[in-house]
Specification:
By secondary structure, the chain is mainly beta. The protein is built from 1 helix and 6 strands, in the order ββββββα.
């Protein structure tokens, strides 16, 4: 398989403990960050993924939540996820491309 990453990655020998949390705070999962780059990371998630809104979420890098990244889902393979780190410009652009509901006539 060809390498698709555009950023150099750092592999953590033992993994970095982290948490995933819904944008609205309705769910939280413990995970391990296996590797990371400027553009994203590979996570191993503890617990079921069924029913979670994974299209956009926070990756909490500290137990207090003070260090975090906003993420978008890139791929899923069992209990592992590939995530893309979203920048403010990405978030604004995706919000602008959503269709607006029409005003009632």
């Amino acid at each position: 398989m060809a390498e698709q990453r555009s950023h150099r990655r750092v592999v953590f020998e033992r993994g970095q403990p982290a948490y995933m949390m819904a944008i609205d705070g309705t769910w939280r999962r413990t995970c391990v960050m296996e590797d990371a780059s400027d553009g994203g990371a590979k996570l191993t998630v503890e617990g079921p993924l069924e029913g979670l809104q994974l299209n956009e979420f926070f990756l909490l890098l500290s137990s207090t939540g003070l260090a975090y990244r906003r993420c978008g889902l890139a791929w899923v393979n069992g209990d592992q996820l590939g995530v893309t780190f979203l920048k403010r410009s990405n978030v604004k652009r995706s919000a602008q491309t959503k269709p607006k509901s029409e005003a009632p006539a």
